C-alpha cells in the first residue's frame, strides 16, 4: 500500500501482483486506489497498449472527465468506465473549495475487455449506479 498527501490532496494506491504470465485470458485488477483531490489534481492519459481499462467510482464531490473531446461531470454515485484504447483526462474544476473523492481500479483480461466494451456500448462512458455504497465497499476490499 502506498499513501501520499500533497498540495493536490491525498492518494492511496494498491498494487496487485502481475499474473500476466498466465496469459491474457485471466481477468485481473492490476492497480487500485482512492483519491481525495483538489483543483491542483489532473491526470492526462494517452491510449495504453497495456490492455488495462480504468473504472472510477465517485464517492463525494465533483470531478470532470474528458474523452474524445466530450466533457463528463462526475458526481457522487457516478461511475466511469474507460476502455484502454481511449486517451482521457480527468481533473477537479478550479476553485479552492472543490474536492473530488473517488475509488479507481485498472482491470485487464479478455473477458474484462469484452464486458467493458459492452457496458460502454449500452450505457456510455459514465453513468449513475444504484448500489454505489456496495460497489464502493467492494472496491475498497
Could you give a short description of this structure?
The chain has 141 residues and is an alpha+beta fold. Helix content is 16%, strand content 47%. Strands 1-2-3-10-5-8-11 form a 7-stranded antiparallel sheet, covered by helices on one side. A 4-stranded antiparallel sheet has the order 4-9-6-7, with no helix packed on it.
How would you describe this structure to a colleague?
16% of the residues lie in helices and 47% in strands. It has helices at residues 110-123, 132-140, and strands at residues 2-6, 9-15, 28-37, 42-45, 53-61, 63-67, 70-74, 78-82, 88-91, 100-108, 126-128. The protein has 141 residues and is α+β, with helices and mostly antiparallel strands. The mean pLDDT is 86.
Give a short account of the largest sheet. 7 strands, antiparallel
Low-confidence stretches: none
Report the oligomer: single chain
The largest beta-sheet arranges its strands as 1-2-3-10-5-8-11
Portion of residues in helices? Answer: 10-25%
What value does the Rg take, in angstroms?
A: 15 Å
Shape: globular
Strand content: over 45%
Broad structural category: alpha+beta
Q: Between the first and last Cα atoms, what is the distance in angstroms?
A: 13 Å
The topology string of helices and strands comes to EEEEEEEEEEHEH
Number of helical runs? 2
In total, the number of strands is: 11
Give the averaged pLDDT, no decimals: 86
Amino acid at each position: 500500500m502506498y499513501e501520499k498527501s500533497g498540495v493536490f490532496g491525498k492518494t492511496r494506491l494498491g498494487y496487485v501482483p502481475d499474473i500476466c504470465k498466465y496469459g491474457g485470458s485471466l481477468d485481473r485488477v492490476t492497480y487500485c486506489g482512492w483519491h481525495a483531490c483538489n483543483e491542483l489534481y489532473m491526470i492526462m492519459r494517452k491510449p495504453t497498449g497495456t490492455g488495462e481499462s480504468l473504472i472510477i467510482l465517485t464517492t463525494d464531490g465533483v470531478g470532470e472527465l474528458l474523452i474524445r473531446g466530450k466533457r463528463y461531470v462526475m458526481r457522487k454515485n457516478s461511475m466511469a468506465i474507460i476502455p484502454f484504447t481511449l486517451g482521457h483526462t480527468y481533473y477537479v474544476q478550479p476553485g479552492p473549495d472543490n474536492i473530488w473523492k473517488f475509488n479507481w481500479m485498472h482491470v485487464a483480461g479478455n473477458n474484462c475487455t469484452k464486458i467493458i466494451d459492452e457496458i460502454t456500448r449500452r450505457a456510455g462512458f459514465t453513468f449513475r449506479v444504484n448500489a454505489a455504497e456496495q460497489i464502493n465497499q467492494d472496491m475498497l476490499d
